[in-house]
Specification:
Layout: H1 6-20, H2 25-54, H3 56-60, H4 65-90, H5 95-99, H6 107-129, H7 134-148, H8 158-162, H9 167-180, H10 187-221, H11 228-258
Helix pairs in contact: 1-2, 2-4, 2-6, 4-6, 4-9, 6-7, 7-11, 9-10, 10-11
């Protein structure tokens, strides 16, 4: 459905598209902007209000600005995953992309990447404003840069496939929310940790490196058609993200292992004082319905 702001936004994108040689950007720039505004609104307005109502104890006891921001970031992150993954999966059947993995184009990729770029723009700005870890800033900026280049068009086949890395984010955020709602070391967190590590290893390490090898092969095959700067930027950017995945995987193993005893069995969870008691696999922390 077209909105009155679509055409003005496309006009704004034209100079940027010409400067960066991204001819498909103007058509999808409105969606990119709307996605950015959605994620920013959820981060700054919607998540704080809903979290305070649904989780009055767990959210209310967050005293530091950093802790509150981290909670709201996790809400935005979950929303992004549930929007972008279905969009990415719709691109997998594109015969146009399969026929030309480097230069092929499909408007479904445009929609998918527009949402992803809106998210990574928000993510990068938050990483700058609320600086916490250089790895997060590098990740956000690298993803934004690499996915923006899809509008060239370039690597349209790979873009939605690399977005499947975000599948592990679902379980990572569940893990963090369990920590914050008083279920650290619970059976639920133990089971989620197993799924988290399995998913992260499968989609980011195994599938990620398989896709990277295919990606590098495609870049090498097109080396005569590509500027040396682009070859180097894409190769280094992709390898940097893969290195971050390996680093984060190690840190996750260590962090999850710390929450359990020497035999690796779940510890007893300590729920917030005014939470309604519930079985470990279906906690109703803060009295909220799940």
């Amino acid at each position: 459905m077209a909105l009155p702001t679509d055409e003005p936004l496309r006009a704004i994108a034209q100079p940027l598209a010409r400067l960066l040689r991204l001819p498909h950007l103007p058509d999808h720039f409105p969606l990119l902007v709307y996605a950015f505004l959605l994620f920013t609104s959820v981060h700054l307005l919607i998540s704080p209000v809903l979290s305070a109502r649904l989780f009055p104890v767990s959210y209310g006891k967050l005293r530091s600005r950093r802790a509150i921001n981290q909670w709201n970031i996790q809400v935005v992150s979950l929303l992004h995953v549930f929007i972008v993954l279905p969009l990415a999966f719709t691109c997998f059947g594109s015969e146009t992309l399969k026929a030309d993995k480097l230069w092929g184009w499909d408007d479904r990729v445009g929609r998918t990447v527009a949402v992803a770029c809106g998210y990574f723009l928000w993510d990068t700005l938050d990483a700058i404003i609320n600086f916490d870890d250089m790895g997060f800033l590098i990740h956000g900026a690298s993803c934004l840069t690499l996915y923006m280049m899809t509008f060239r068009p370039f690597l349209g086949y790979y873009a939605p496939r690399f977005l499947t890395w975000e599948l592990s984010t679902i379980f990572l955020n569940i893990h963090r929310f369990l920590d914050k709602t008083g279920y650290t070391g619970s059976t639920a967190q133990w089971l989620n940790g197993v799924v988290l590590l399995s998913t992260f290893f499968s989609v980011r390490i195994v599938y990620g490196w398989y896709l990277t090898l295919e990606f590098m092969h495609s870049l090498y095959a097109a080396r005569a058609e590509l500027n040396a700067f682009y070859l180097l930027a894409f190769a280094l950017g992709n390898l940097t993200l893969n290195a971050l995945n390996l680093t984060w995987f190690y840190k996750m193993i260590f962090a999850i292992r710390k929450r359990f005893d020497a035999e690796g069995k779940p510890l007893t969870a300590t729920a917030p004082a005014d939470a309604t008691p519930a079985p470990a696999l279906a906690p109703a922390a803060n009295g909220a319905a799940h």
